[in-house]
Design goal:
111 residues, mainly beta, 11 strands
């Protein structure tokens, strides 16, 4: 079955950086686009970024496109989200997902 495990979150000061990872199993990773979404406390889930199967095409939520970088390693079945210049509004639980399946998330808190 599809399993997605996010990691790399933490508590960081504003202006800092984090590198999130999502390890996938249970499906043919290289065949599917992958996305990151986030949910801030008391708010709805919002889409953050998406990457195509071979990594050649990436898209971002407008407000993060200059600070977030999505990438993937198909050999490792892993998708990444590098976050720079963290802002308080980035505080959220971050989830990776595909085809409606998501992991349990990793918490990012910006102080």
């Amino acid at each position: 079955h599809v399993q997605l495990v996010e990691s790399g979150g933490g508590l960081v000061q504003a202006g800092g950086s984090l590198n999130l990872s999502c390890s996938a199993s249970g499906f043919t990773f290289r065949a599917l686009d992958m996305s990151w979404v986030r949910q801030a406390p008391g708010k709805e889930v919002e889409w953050v970024s998406k990457i195509s199967t071979d990594g050649s095409n990436t898209t971002y939520k407008e407000s993060v496109k200059d600070r977030f970088t999505i990438s993937r390693d198909n050999a490792k079945s892993t998708v990444y989200l590098d976050i720079n210049s963290l802002q308080s509004e980035d505080t959220a639980m971050y989830y990776c997902g595909t085809q409606g399946a998501f992991g349990r998330g990793t918490q990012v808190t910006v102080s």
